[in-house]
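Deviation from plan, reported transparently: zinc ion complex.
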Amino acid sequence: MPETWSFHSAGQIIFGRNSVRQLGEVAKQLRAKRVFIVTDRVLEGAGIVDRIRQPLNESGVELQVFNGGEAEPSIHAAEACIQRGRSFRPDAVLGLGGGSNMDLAKITAVILAHSGTPRDYIGEFKIPAPILPLVCVPTTAGTGSEVSAASVLTDTENQIKVGILSNYLRPRIAIVDPLMTVSCPPKVTADSGIDALTHAIEAFTAVDNADFPIPLHEKTVYQGRHPMADALAAQAITLIGVNLRRAVKNGNDLEAREGMALAATLAGLAFSNVGVAAVHALEYPVGAATHCSHGAGNGLLLPYVMRFNLSVRPREFAKIAQFLGENVAAMDEKQAAERAIQAVTQLRSDIGIPLRLRDLGVQQEQLHPFAEKAFGIKRILRVNPRPATVQDLESILQAAF
Ligand SMILES: NC(=O)c1ccc[n+]([C@@H]2O[C@H](COP(=O)([O-])OP(=O)(O)OC[C@H]3O[C@@H](n4cnc5c(N)ncnc54)[C@H](O)[C@@H]3O)[C@@H](O)[C@H]2O)c1
Ligand SMILES: [Zn+2]
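Because the crystal trials were delayed, the predicted structure below was used instead.
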């Protein structure tokens, strides 16, 4: 099949230090007079909410702040947020935080526009039309939710992460201000940073667009690998290679923070068009059962999934080694590809990501049920360049155990 791909993004991306000062202008542009801010208490405590409030107050916007966001938010947290939003009757929603708060803001903007409950929208293409105008301001350099088509919630009853996917979920405006990430503690920097690396690597090594196994008559947001996303993923991997260790070591290293903020958004643009793959499929059950952060779970699993995919993507892996700053000039393709796995493994341990599933408290007998749950997440598993059976997934988990 020949390649046919499209590219979707946030409506507008505003990038740079102190770019949040433009929020007043942004509200005017959206004709928003009542803005519902979705955030959490940690960010309030860090003074970040005040930095958002100021430019909005100055342009006369009425605000309501929901500070009940939580890491890896549950459907219950989403319902609480929606309830608050409903009583305020905003004309725009602003997601302020890491992926967790941005994803809560997204589902809130859906339901304020279309009613229903979060569960009604789980899956792809369930959102019928545009949502309330949504602005996202990331405070981690990680998820890329500020440009992505996803909202990820935790279904605590069924112990699984669930995804809502629709191009209507892409924010109208993303304001990526690297200064918002300076207060991230090293663990949040490391976990969210390796999530961005996972996005870029999964996009860069995904199944080709031309071979993407979309069943006939089925629509999907993800399209497989294409050249525009490749360029973005390559640059994201390069920036992460230069900046992630630095940002974890010294949170006040503004150059590193800026590099990571850009990398996370570029990786978000790449994966939200191409798709994420087996790392994410495996992280969903692992994360829901162990309550590890999404980034820590992905970072832990990444080298093991790379090992599984190595045989079908040697050329791409060799390039990844190069992007990560490895000297591969004297190596053949196979050696260079192997070096990519080593480089990611080294980076992972340098920034303090847990190395084995048992470190998260996982028990041997959980591996098979995790593999079965991951196998059920077809929409992302089919993005993986090498098809994986339940047994393959269990072997990957066994290697990571
Ligand atoms: N929508 C998407 O496209 C997408 C993509 C990947 C991941 N996700 C989801 O995003 C979530 C993870 O997001 P995350 O990695 O950005 O972390 P997070 O949003 O869960 O935040 C982690 C912790 O860091 C704190 N924090 C965030 N920014 C801070 C700052 N500047 N200073 C101090 N503390 C700060 C938060 O309060 C929170 O306690 C998961 O639920 C994951 O499934 C979504
Ligand atoms: Zn992710």
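Residues 143, 195, 198-199, 280, 294, 298 surround zinc ion (ligand 2) (CB under 6 Å). We consider this an acceptable substitute for the interim report.
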